[in-house]
Amino acid sequence: MQISIAKPVIGDLEKQAVQAILDSGYLVHGAEVVKFEEAFAAYHGAKHAIGVNNGTSALIATMMAHNIQAGDEVIVPSFSFFATAASVVSVGATPVFADIDPDTFCLSPSAAEAAITPRTVAIMPVHLYGHPADMNAFVDICSRHNLILLEDAAQAHGAKISDRFVGTYGTASFSFYPSKNMTTGEGGMILTNDDEIARQLRMIRNQGMNQQYHHEVVGYNMRMMNIQAAIGNVQLDNLGDWTDQRIENAGFFNEQLSYVKTPVTLKDCKHVYHQYTIRVPNGQRDQLANQLNEKGIGARIYYPSLIHKQPALQQYSHYELPESDKATQEVMSLPVHPQLTQEERQYIVDTVNELCGAMETQSI
Fold first, then answer.
1. pLDDT tens across 184-212, in order?
2. Chain centroid, CA 26 distance in Å
C-alpha cells in the first residue's frame, strides 16, 4: 500500500474549466480571475480578494501594500515555512522571531507581545497546519500597540474561530499550492477589508498599474492566470465537503491512535487539518517516520529546522525559542487528505500503533 501525504483532487470539471480557458485564448488576469476573487471573498465574508501567482507573492505584496520597509520589524514565528519570514526580508524589513503555543503550534500572543520594540510595525501569526492562531488576542495586542495585523493563512482555507473565518482579521495571504486544502496548481490570494490596501495590491501585482502604461507605484508581475482561477472556481465549490472529510479523518485518528500525542483543537476553533500533525516524544520521531515510509505511509516532518536557523538567515540564529525547538524534534504529519479510504485510514492507525508499541517495548 502506498499512501501519499497529500493528494490533490483534480477531476473532470477542473479539466473542462481549463480547456475552456485554453479555447478562449484569454490566459492571464481576466474575467475568470475576477470571478474567483469575488467567490473567494464571499466565501470568507471579506470585502476584497486579490489573486496572485503564488502564496509567496501574496505575502510579499502584502508587505509592500502596507509600506513595510527597511528599519521596520515584523514579529513572526520561526516554526513555519520559510516564506513567512522571507517575505519580510524581501522588502528590507527585519523579522523578529517569537515562540509558539505548544498545543496549537501557532505564534504565542504573549511571546509576540514581549517581542515588541519601538521599531515593530506588524505582527504576522501563521494558522499552522490549519488550526487558527489566537486572533482575538492578536487583534487586542495590535490595537493597543497600534500595529498592523497580518495573517499567513496559507494552510487554513475555511478555518474558523467561532463563526468567523480566519483571513478576515487582518490582511491575509493564502496559497493554492497542490498540497493545500484546495489548489489552483500554483496561485495565491490576499483578503482585506481595507479599500486602499486592496487598491495598492491590485497595482503591485500588475507592474504598478491601475491603467495600462500608467505606473503609479513600483510593482511586479504577480498576476494570477485565468487557468489557475478556472481550477480554483471548481475547487472552491468543493472546499466545504473536503474540509468535512479531513475533519472526519482526523477524528478517526484521534480515537484510534495510541502512544503518540494527537492534535489539539481549542474551544470555538475549526481546525481544517491541512496537516494532521502528531508529537512523537523520546527521540523516536525520525525512526518512526522512516519506518512508516518503508511501509508505504507518506509520513512527513513539517518542519525539521526553524527558519532563523537556516543558512540564509544565520544573522538571526541568536534567538532562543524552546517550544519551537521542541516541536522540530517531535512533530510528524500523517496523511489526512479527503481521498483516504477506510482501508487506508485503518492501515495508518494499525501501523503507527504497532510500530510505537514495539518501540515502547524495546525501551523498557
1. 999 999 999 999 999 999 999 999 998 88
2. 30
Please tell me the pTM assigned to this model: 0.96
- Distance, CA of 264 to CA of 254 (rounded, Å): 9
What CATH number should be reported for the domain whose range is 12-233? 3.40.640.10
Q: 239-363 belongs to which homologous superfamily?
A: Aspartate Aminotransferase, domain 1 (3.90.1150.10)
Q: Three cell numbers at 194?
A: 481595507
DSSP sequence for 272-317: --SSEEEE--TT-HHHHHHHHHHTTB--B-S-SS-GGGSGGGGGGT
pLDDT digits (tens, 9 = 90+) for 250-299: 999 999 999 999 999 999 999 999 999 999 988 999 999 999 999 999 99
In this structure, are residues 332 and 301 in contact, taking their beta carbons and an 8 Å threshold? yes
Separation between Cα atoms, residue 353 and residue 175, nearest integer Å: 33
What CA–CA distance (Å, rounded) separates 24 from 16? 12
